[in-house]
Structures are given as structure tokens and as C-alpha cells.
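Hello,

Following up on my earlier ticket. Below are the two sequence lines again, exactly as submitted.
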Amino acid sequence: MYYTDGSLIGGEPPVKAVDGISFEIARGETLGLVGESGCGKSTLGRTIVGLESATDGTITVDGTDITELSGSGLREWQQRIGMVFQDPQESLNDRQTIGETINEPLKTHDWKTPAEREKRVFTLLDQVGLREEHFYRYPHQFSGGQRQRIGIARALALEPEFLILDEPVSALDVSVQARVINLLERLQDELGLTYLFIAHDLSVIRHIADRVAVMYLGNLMEVGPTERVFDSPANPYTRSLLSAIPGSSTPAPDDLERVTLRGTPPNPRHPPAGCPFATRCPAKIKPPKYENLSDEAFDAIEAFRDVLRDRSRRETGLSSRLKRRLGVGGDGRSVAVIVDELFKTVDLPPKAQTVIDQAAETAELDPDEALATVNEEFNSVCDRESPAEHEVDETGRTSRCLRHRAEYASPEDT
Amino acid sequence: MSRPAPTDRRATRGDEPLLSVRDLRTVFYTDKETIHAVDGISFDIYPGETVGLVGESGSGKSVTARSILGLVDEPGAIENGEIRFKNTELVEEGWDDRRGEIAIIFQDPSNALNPVYTIGNQIREALNIHQGLSGAAARERAIELLEAVGIPDAPRRVDEYPHQFSGGMAQRAVIAISLACDPDLLVCDEPTTALDVTIQAQILDLLNDLQAEEDLAILFITHDMGVIEETADRVTLSTPVRSSRVRQRSACSRSRSTRTRPRCWRVSPAGPHQTSNYPPSKERYRHRTGRPRPAGSPHGVRWLSTSAGRRFPTPSRSTAGPSTRRRVSSPARSTIPEVRTCEFTHTGGCRHRSRERGHVTRDP
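Thanks for your patience. The regenerated structure is below:
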């Protein structure tokens, strides 16, 4: 699923929101989808419902590719699938009563007669734990938890088999979360629903999901049964994510060492060429000629590369570029200062030192060239090759990391 | 999972609290009703320690923070109580003499920053007001501050606008602004709630480091018990209903194992952890009904209608009219529980905890 900026001439590379992922959901199961904000979780959900159209690839349900559907076929599919949105505040129409809101999908799809529709709405209210009199009320008269129940009732209106739950409890207080989750579990049992549960809260996922998919920058890093993924995470990203949850009652294994990741996920317009996680990975494979480099030195080099990457991507106006070329107004010392700061406590081999110094000199005028120099010198296999899916264990759990290859130490050992 | 466990630093710091709040009541008057947002809370913060303030949304946590900084606007007012900071009574004498010594970080960094000024400009503004720095010196100091909060490439970043910063970066910038006035007390109002868990870990690490370097006292407000466990020396629980009162204070290491109040039990295990191993049982506590509104005149236990530890007959809010409710007599309904000390560092305010949980309580 790519987003282009729609300009006629030139234009930027497209935003690769979801970038070539494959997974399956069995009937009646809950697949949890986790990841940081902006990693493409919601786009994936919206593409499945048909709110976005996929650039490439297939989504097959009972043998039909739903990305090909249009017109009445699409409408039919949309009756079989429901969606619950994150923000119960935004997703309800202020000017419609709850009855009208829940009735809306029934009306749109011309479901039976008006009288039967109204009966259906009352049944739905009862199913999600609301009362009859709520039919005539407006959204502002409800609390956050109740509004989310309304959203769930609306999603269930057309008796779907499959629900996409896009962060359904993120906006709620913890104690209210528990009740909405209980409701979702009960409904799944009663109605035999299949869930795609999107969340960034790992504790929620652990509680509700049968299998979990961990997403990073439009890619699925690890997919497997919930227990296995949480008890012995195989991918470096899953490990970092789990270890970052604060407190002692976290869903992460007790012996997991805390890793605080550097920086933020890269811009999906310019994803890394190799492994999507390569820019922040704590277990990144060192280039062969620097195999014996200390971890601190390697981290410092990676941090320096982040700075250069950031500089070369910066969209700068014509005037500031001109000023830089002419050598006026620029902050001439800044890169040198950064280099001093980063490398003051680490020992670099002479060759590496030369390259860093050279890059520091050119960075001010031509960050692109500086970046290219550093990239070439410290080119790791993680920067070049995109890892393939690797089957981790007999449960069919897969993980994408080059460290699963026999010649490298596995992610658990690093 | 090892960020160094917080210790009770109070013992080593002498007995003089940096900030002392006593019986604080902040009330909002509207045409329709009077809202008791903060209703008689008391707590101390000692130099260099972190005190956590926990509670659900609407429990009055943020109003407490704003009251401490003197930021409560019309139609709200601090009705009663004292806020003593370094021997200055702020409610009476006003905040003017102490400006800059207490700083605040808000939840949403994108709202806290002005989109039409550069980050550097906003830090310089604080430096100018509080330290009288201007020109190149202010710029230099702004860069230093950005570096101190872990922003890479600070000399360049200082000239950028808030929209060019990611959420975590923007929150770092807000922390840099709050440090610009060189405060002794930092009030963090849900500083990581809007952030992803990996970025949250970075910010928590940063606050820990800054506290060690600058010897800051921190009032950390959050609804996440996990965050509190990692950051706070002591915890104060704000009751999530009707009005906020301090419900339980305890040394943080204790807060999960020896909870004295039903409400406190419920707040943390209500979280969807499957592996919760909380006393008294593995069952999760749940709300029976929603939260009462903080309006009206306060009588009795505020969280009564939602208390899981309650034994007294209370008709549900939806079916019973006011007269029915008045007829039901419950000791918890008619009186306000006192705050009592139980064990050493642990205070709680619930009337039947000793019976229910077998806790030994002592009068102070």
C-alpha cells in the first residue's frame, strides 16, 4: 500500500505505508497487530476493509481476492466485515441519536424492512450492554467506554464474521479498558467472530490475541502464537519493544535485558535499503572489516550516520542552500562539535577515524557525499540485504532478521 | 528489565520538605454546579525525590499540578489549603517570587509548543524571562539544553519549528524549555502518555538522568502504574471520583505488595496484564458502575459507587432516585474517612480495609 504525492512532475518517492507483508488469519481467531505509531497498522486495517486500495498484492477471503472487488461485490464484502475505530469521540456523529447511528449501516445496505431494522438496533444495544433508553440519546450523553460500546454495536449491525478493531481501547482508562475487552471476548464467543486487533499496547495484545504480528515500518518483523512471541521473542525489534514496557508486571519475560532504542523510526518515504530496522537495531551485524570494533564505537558510528542521514534528507529552501554554498550564515562548527561529542570516549581504528574526519569536513557543505562516504566504509549486511522470513520454531512462528542465518550469532545471544 | 530501582531518598535528605501541600481544595464554579476538582489533599515532596501521583482521568491530577504552579484560571479557584514551597506560602503570598523554581511538562508536546516560533526561540524566551540571557549567549545556552535532553544535531535543530520534530523529540524540547529556568521542582503531567513505548523508555531514562545530574525533585503524574513503579520513590493515589483526595501514599516498592485500599488494588490490576500476580487474588478488579461526577457537595466516600471492596447495600445509580439512595444507610456513605498511617511509610484512607484485608493500622 503506497501513497504517492500526486504531483505531475518529478515528485517525491511514494510513502510505503505497508510494504509487502503476508499473513493469514484463521476463522474464529484473534490476530493481534502491534507496532509503534506510524508503522502502517491502521493502513493495513483500512486496506482490508476496502477504505484504501492496495497498490499491489492480494487479500484473499474464501478464495476471492477482495482487492479486485468493486461495486456490488465490494458492498457484499463490506457487509461481512465490521470496523471499530480508535477514538469513540470522533467516530460518532454528534447530531445523530445512538439509534440512528447504529441503524446507519443497516439503512445503507438496505437491510430488511425499517421495522426489522429498529428491532435489530435494540438487540444490538442489549448485546453490547447498553439499555433501551439509550436509543434516543446523543453521543455527548455517554462516557468514553459507552461510546466505544456504541461503536462496537454499529460494527456488528450487519452480522459480520470479521471485525477490524483499530486501537479500540487506546483512548480509554485502564479500568474501562478491561470491561470493553471483556465485552469483545464475550461477543467473539457468542457470535463466532474473527478479530484483527490493532493496538500499540502490548499488554492488551497479550491478553486478547491468539497470534500476534509485530509490525515495523510497513513490514511484519515477527508473527507467531502470542505465548511464544511474548515468552521468547526471536526478533531484535520484538525484544526491544517488549523490554521497553515499564513496571514489574509487564508481559515481557523477566530475564529480558532492557534496551532503549536510539532515535525514532525512519521516514517511510525513505525506508532503509536493507533491513527496515537496521537504523536502530541494537543487534546490528558489524561489517566484516570492523568485526572487532567495540559496541560503544559501533553505536557512536551509527549515531553519526543518523545525523548525516537526517541532514541529507532535510528539505532546505533555496536561500539557505545558497548561503551554505557561499559559506555565510551557516553554523560552521556544528558537525565538528557533534563528532567530538560522539567519539570523545571511544577508540576508533585509524582507518575508521580518517573516514569519520573526512565526512565531518564535507558534511557541512555536502551532507549527501559525507553520508555516502560513511555508508561505504561501514556497510553492514543489514544495510544491504532485506531479511527473508525465517521460521523460528515448530509452531510456524516467523521472524525477519539476518541474524537467523547460520553464520551469525542469533539475536538472543547479542 | 532493569532500570535501577528507585529508593526512598527521603531518609538521606533531612526532614525539610521542598514542597508541602496541606488540605488543598480547588473548586470550579459554573452556573449550573460547583465542581470539587481537588478536595483536601495533602502531601510532601522532599528535595531530589520523585513522588508519583496516580489516578484515572478526571480524578483531579492535572488540577493538582496546575494548583501547585498557580495556573488555575477562572472559573476555578484555590478555595482552601496551603502550598508551601521553600518556606514560602504560595497561596497567600503569590507565585511571583518563586517563578522559575517550579516548572511543568505537559502531556501533549504538540500543544505545549507554539507552531509559529522555532524551538530555539521558545527556549530563548524562557531563558530571557528567568535568567536574563539574550542574544548569542541565550542561543548558546539553548543549544546546550537541547544537547542535555539528548537531541542529536542540536545546533541545527535549534532553528527548526515544532512540526519538524517527532513526538518524542518535541517532548525533549519541552523538557529543555522547562529546564531553562533551572527549576528545583519539575511537575511532569503525563509526560509520556502520548508517546510510543520505545520513546517512553527514552524519556523516562532522560528524566532519571536529569534528576541525578540536576538534583531535581519531580512530581510525576500518570495513570500508568508501570511507569510509576519505575520512576517514583513514593506514590500518592488520587481517587478517581467525585473529587480527588489523596487515597494512599506509600513507598513505591511497597505499593504493589501491600495495598491498603480497595481502590488502589483495583487501579493497577485492572490493566489487561494476563500475568498479574497481585494480592489478594489473581482476579482483576473491575468497576461496578461508571465514575460519579465531581460536582455537588462532598459527603462520604467518593468512590463508593465503584468500590469493589464495599460491603454495604447501595442501589445502582441508574435505578435508584435520590430518595431511595438517602434511605440506604451505609457508614461509608455518610462520613469521610480519615487518612491513617498504617505500617511506616504507608498511609491510606478507607474505613473497612482492616477488616477486609487483615491489615494492621495505627493512628498517626
